[in-house]
Design goal:
With 53 residues, this protein is an all-alpha fold. Helix content is 64%, strand content 0%. The chain has helices at residues 4-9, 25-52. The longest helix has 28 residues, at 25-52.
């Protein structure tokens, strides 16, 4: 336990916020694959709908 006298005369610095952790490469790769498949499916459905009429 710190000395109460020291805490009254020495300013205590608040803890610095932790920097955000970057996403791992695998997570970014899977996110890109999922978004690419979703965009491809959307384009495919739009092309089928537009070619049907």
């Amino acid at each position: 336990m710190p000395d109460p006298h020291c805490s009254s005369c020495c300013p205590v610095e608040p803890p610095k916020p932790e920097p955000p952790v970057p996403w791992p490469l695998g997570a970014l790769l899977w996110l890109g694959i999922i978004l690419g498949v979703g965009a491809g499916a959307y384009v495919g459905v739009m092309w089928l709908v537009s070619s049907a009429f």
